[in-house]
Amino acid sequence: MFPRLALPALLALAVLPACKKCHDCGSPPPPAPPYYDFWEIEPNDGACCPDVIGTVYVGDEFIVGGTIRDDSFDAYDGFGLTSGEPLEIEFFLEPVGTNADLDLGVWDPVVGDFVLLWDSPGTTEGGRFTLSSAFRDFQLVVMSYSGDSEYRLWVWVDPPALGALAAGPLEAATPTRLDRPVPLEAYRGAPGLEEAPKPLELR
Length: 203
Prior knowledge:
mainly beta, Jelly Rolls, five-stranded mixed beta sheet, 10 strands, 3% helix, globular, disordered N terminus
């Protein structure tokens, strides 16, 4: 979608079209461009109803924009994706204009839980994980431990790392912070599937 640059350079150079403004959908209109390819649409606060970005393939790059709070009024923003092939997801999450402490989780619809969490005490989060098979659904979930903020979630889709295809499925992740203002269980919302294929294979 655009070449990978250092984040400050990309912020300075990228001029992206604005998403269509949302009316009567529960979200405020997104800000003027640039700096995002997708803008969140509420409600997207539970595993039942993430904003669907679609199928991603190696080489895809995009930026998700939105707003988040540290209370139950907007505790989680979920984004649904499907792997089009074995791949590695790299991400960087940052607040816009605030010092909010943002975190990110990977939700597995089959496990019915977060299988990966990045919840450091810093304002930003960055990391990577591998999906070792095609056509696997997963959700990237933005959350705030402290502070209300606009945010940008940068996502790059890379080839899987050497040896990553042998990684097995993960179980529910153990959060490092047990005193979240809104418990992680709140994202689950609806019951999980009674019968499901094998869980996501992540690394």
